[in-house]
Design goal:
The protein is about 50% helix and about 15% strand. The chain is an alpha/beta fold and about 270 residues long.
Length: about 270
């Protein structure tokens, strides 16, 4: 494979109103791609779309949508067809985390977490992937997390959703070989975004947070490789931690993460 040709692409980005999603929009549009920005906050999306259109002379389309809506892939497909937009690339970035003891969490909040972090990723991927495979020059990026690599006490559901996203995306990478479609799971660690406004500051486990711009640069660099990998971890420290984690038993890894989360919550 050669490097990605972004000019002429129409890239759908979920969770685009802030953080990693907004940074994907900035960096991809800077490379010449048109972007479709999807999130709940219309005002944020419109402001970002105006910024990108003016700065990079691309088409930036804001679509306000609740990504936990049933059959969200079909909902977005109909809206894009109405607007005459053919998607050639996707970044499934939207997600949030609950943080606390599982037995104390609100069941409705947990259901929404699974709907956003897992179901929307599957439905959007399934809706568009056949067309992406036929074109053979686009990409599908699903944002997982360092939380995907081990159990996460006090973030039990979030860690499980991201383990799903990682496994799911790596399987799609294999299935898409030879089609020209690049499939990548991106696993950030703690990142400077609004994520922790929802999850709580203790959800970072006391680790240093990366800049969203650096996280996105990692993903785009991986996509540009001659043979893109099925997944990539953002940040040298995070990659080292993941490598060391593979030396531990499942019990040891769970105990270590649990202790980190407890210390962070007490700080």
């Amino acid at each position: 494979m050669s490097t990605v040709e972004y000019r002429g692409q129409n890239v759908l980005i979920t969770g685009a109103s802030s953080g990693i999603g907004a940074e994907f929009a900035r960096q991809i549009s800077a490379r010449g791609a048109n972007v479709v920005l999807v999130a709940r906050r219309q005002d944020r999306l419109e402001a970002l779309a105006a910024e990108l259109a003016q700065r990079h002379r691309v088409e930036a389309t804001p679509i306000a949508a609740d990504l936990t809506t049933p059959k969200i892939g079909s909902v977005l497909d109909r809206e894009l067809a109405r607007r005459g937009i053919e998607i050639t690339g996707i970044v499934n970035n939207a997600g949030f985390a609950t943080h606390g003891l599982f037995h104390e969490e609100d069941p409705e909040r947990l259901a929404a977490e699974i709907a956003l972090d897992v179901t929307s990723v599957v439905e959007i991927s399934r809706t568009f992937i056949e067309r992406l495979r036929r074109r053979g020059d686009g990409f599908l990026v699903n944002v997982a997390s360092m939380a995907a690599y081990q159990a996460n006490p006090t973030m039990a559901v979030y860690g499980a959703t991201k383990a799903f996203v990682l496994s799911f995306t790596e399987a799609l990478w294999y299935e898409s070989r030879g089609t020209g479609l690049r499939v990548l799971a991106l696993s950030p660690g703690a990142t400077e975004t609004e994520f922790f406004d929802v999850a709580g500051s203790g959800a970072d486990g006391g680790t240093r947070r990366m800049a969203a711009a650096d996280v996105v640069k990692t993903a785009l660099a991986a996509l540009d490789r001659r043979n893109p990998p099925p997944s990539v971890i953002a940040g040298r420290v995070n990659r080292t931690a993941a490598a060391l984690g593979r030396l531990l038993t499942r019990r040891q890894a769970t105990m270590m993460i649990g202790a980190m989360m407890n210390r962070s919550a007490a700080a």
